[in-house]
Amino acid sequence: MRKILIGLLSVALFAGGSAVAQANSVVTTIKPLTLIARAVTDGIEQPVQLLPDGLSPHDYSLRPSDRQRLKQAELVIWVGPAHERFLAGLIKNGPGTLNVTALPGLKRLPRRKAEDGSPLPGSLDTHVWLDPDNAILIARAIAEDRARRQPALADRYRANAEHFAQTLKTAWQPLQQRIAALPRHEYVAYHDAYQYLEKSLNLHLAGSLSSETESRPGARHLLAMKKRVHERGITCLVREPASGAGLLQQVAGPKDRIAVLDEGLRQADSFVGGLTLLGQAMEQCLGR
C-alpha cells in the first residue's frame, strides 16, 4: 500500500509540474518589461528582473549572479543593444532572447535634438514601451514565445495577453479624449524621454534642456528655452524623478507647472496603472 501511495504521489507531482512553467524561466532587464511580462505570465510563472529599480541600464555592470541567471533563463526579454548596452556583447538574438526593438510592427522613433526637436538620423529612441500599442505588441510576443515553449499553457498565456491589451485600451482611450479637449498640448522636458507617450496623446514637444539625463545644458541653451517658454505661453514642464528640478525652475515662469514623470515606472505595481498615471500627470500639467 505504501509503495502504491508513493507511486501515485510521484505521478501527481509530475503531472502538476507539467502544468506550471519552471520558476525563474523568464528574465527581464528593466521594470517596464517586467510589468508587461507579469501580466502575460500571471498565475503561471513569475518573471525575474535583472536590474534593480533605479539603476541605469546604459552603464550597469553585471554581477556573477546576474550572469548565472541569464545563463539559466529559458527566455531573456530586453529592450535591445541601444538601451541595455551592457548586454550587447553578451547575448545575441535567438530562440532564448526577445529583443523588443527588433519586433516586427513595433513603432520606432528616432532620438531628437534638444534645441529644436528635429530627428537625429540613424538613431533610436529606446523608450518604446511608452506607446500603448507597442506595449500590447510586446505582451503578445511574450505570450507567443511562452506558448511555443509551454504548449499545455498556451491558451492561458494568450488569454492573459489579450486581457492586458483590453485593459490598457480601456484605460487609455478616455485619457486620449480628455487630453484632446485641452486647449494646450505643448510642453518642455528636461530630458526627451516621453516621445512615444507624446505621440500617443497627440502632444508636442517644444524642446528639451538635455539630450541625455547625464549631461547638463549650457547657459545659452537655457536662455533660449526660457525665451521660448515665455513667447509661446508654455505652462507645462516635465522632468524625471532624479534630475532637472533646479534647471527647469530657471526656465519656468512663476505660474508654470513642473510635472514629475517616471518613464521607468519604478513605483508602479502594474503596467497599465503606471502608464495611466504618467498620462494623467501630463493631463494635469497641461490643463490644470
TrEMBL record:
**Signal peptide segment:** 1-23
Question: Mind listing the GO biological process terms from this record?
Answer: zinc ion transport
Q: Which GO terms describe its molecular function?
A: metal ion binding
Pfam families on file: ZnuA
InterPro entries referenced in this protein's UniProt entry, alphabetically: Bact_metal-bind_prot9 (IPR050492), ZnuA-like (IPR006127)
Q: Which UniProt keywords apply?
A: Ion transport, Signal, Transport, Zinc, Zinc transport
Record flagged with keyword Coiled coil: no
Q: Which family does it belong to?
A: Belongs to the bacterial solute-binding protein 9 family.
Q: Which PANTHER family match?
A: HIGH-AFFINITY ZINC UPTAKE SYSTEM PROTEIN ZNUA, HIGH-AFFINITY ZINC UPTAKE SYSTEM PROTEIN ZNUA-RELATED
Descriptive protein name? High-affinity zinc uptake system protein ZnuA
